[in-house]
Amino acid sequence: MNLSKKLLRVVSALLLTALSFMFIYGCDNTESEEIPVTVGFSVHFIDVGNGDSIFVRLPDGKNMLIDCGVNQNDNLQNIKRVLDTYSVKTIDYLVLTHPDIDHVGNAESVIKSYQVKRAYIPNVYNIEEYPRFDKAVDALRESSAEIKYSSLGDGVLQDDYVIAFLSPCSSSLGDPYGDFNKTSTPTDSEINDLSPIIYLEYANVKFLFTGDAGVNQERLVLTNYEVGLYTQAFHGRVILSNIDFLKVAHHGANGSTSKDLLDEIMPTNAIISVGGDNVYGHPSSVILNRLYENNENMNVLRTDVYGNISVSVDEDGQYQISK
Q1: Which of 56, 82, 106, 322 is least surrounded by CB atoms within 10 angstroms?
Q2: Pairing mode, if any, of strands 319-322 and 309-313?
Q3: Could you tell me which of 252, 290, 297 has the C-alpha nearest to residue 271?
């Protein structure tokens, strides 16, 4: 074989390897990225910068949307692109975790663009302090949506899946919003702790969504779990050990994702919804180290690195991650 033929084979092999790598891992081009459409159950962590928005396609065809990201850049278009890919007309369950703009910024537009059947929102009296949340609540009241204030014990129990609100909690099992609404100037941590921690399980694949909930709420959830409160409330269908997918709270900030929580749930995959080069320094190196200390093989997936992150689960409990 002469030199030119050898060179041609080497170049061809390198080209084939490069094409194979692109096929397996994808190109870094979010504009041309196609959103995977799956039949059955899937969860989509939508890239909305330093905010949260999660779309869940339930196995019975119902739709759940947790938060709506901040109202800037192309975040609203990205949310709509995911929903429209699944031909969503109705949002059966809309969850607005807490009034911060990076979670409710596009909520008003979403509510006016889709039919919301039921909305879970925090019971905040002084909503004028949170103008974007205020507008979203007004839009819900003008619609035909059923409005529920997120509370421990809320949820949806079906034969093949469970959605369970494990919080917000108060230390006395009383009204979790009482102390908050008595405070004229609540702290950031008090606002974040309004976020419900939500357990979702289908085909033995378990997700834990956390909003911006902090260590205080994590401790209360762990205590309630230890004393069997969730066993009673959800008929034994909440099992916090070996969580498959943890949505890391508060974009990876220091005040959440405690060692105690990680030791209990032992997650396999950790999703961080975060904006690149954000001014808050999210995610914290402390939290990243804590995740890997909990599991050196932890699969940490970040929206600022991968864009939209999708998880599909078949009826046998096999899941695939697309990013």
Answers
A1: 322
A2: antiparallel
A3: 252
For residues 252 and 283, the answer to whether their CB atoms sit within 8 Å is: yes
**23: pLDDT confidence band, cut at 50, 70 and 90?**
very low
Start-to-end C-alpha separation, the chain: 43
Interatomic CA distance for residues 287 and 284, integer angstroms = 5
CB 272, CB 307: distance < 8 Å: no
CB 163 within 8 A of CB 64: yes
Domains of the chain from N-terminus onward: 33-322 (3.60.15.10)
State the pTM of this model: 0.89
